[in-house]
Amino acid sequence: MKVSFETIDNILIAQLEGELDHHTAKEVRDEVDKTIDAFFIKHLLFDFNKVTFMDSSGIGVIIGRYNKIHDMNGRVGVVNCNKYVDKIFEVSGLYSIIEKFSNLNEAIKSINE
């Protein structure tokens, strides 16, 4: 799993590439947390455009980062989910606590309102 970051207006965009599973979850969790702390980030968007697989460990990554950001009165969202990942988020109930956006521009605009 490859994770790259971009910040726009105090929003950290974590662009994920590959499989988010029990083999890669700790690495992703650590990288995202380290970046949030280093740049005093308030809001977080996960870009799933290049995610090919996700299991329950990925859900844990999202929930953990949600808790961290929520404690700072921030917002967490996801963008560019394929049908498979979207179904996992829907069935798991994650969409009741995180926001789903169609694209990055929509997400950034909504968060900055």
Question: How does this model look, in words?
Answer:
The structure is a single chain. The chain is an alpha/beta fold. The protein has a single domain (2-112), classed as STAS domain (Transcription Regulator spoIIAA, 2-Layer Sandwich), CATH 3.30.750.24. It contains four helices and five strands; from the N terminus they run ββαβαβαβα. It has helices spanning 25-39, 56-70, 83-92, 104-112, and strands at residues 2-8, 11-20, 43-54, 76-79, 99-101. The protein has a five-stranded mixed beta sheet, with helices on both faces. The N and C termini lie far apart (32 Å). The mean pLDDT is 96.
H/E series, N to C? Answer: EEHEHEHEH
CATH superfamily: STAS domain
* Total discrete domains: 1
Specify the overall morphology: globular
Low-confidence stretches: none
Measure the end-to-end span: 32 Å
CATH architecture descriptor name: 2-Layer Sandwich
Strand arrangement, major sheet: 1-2-3-4-5
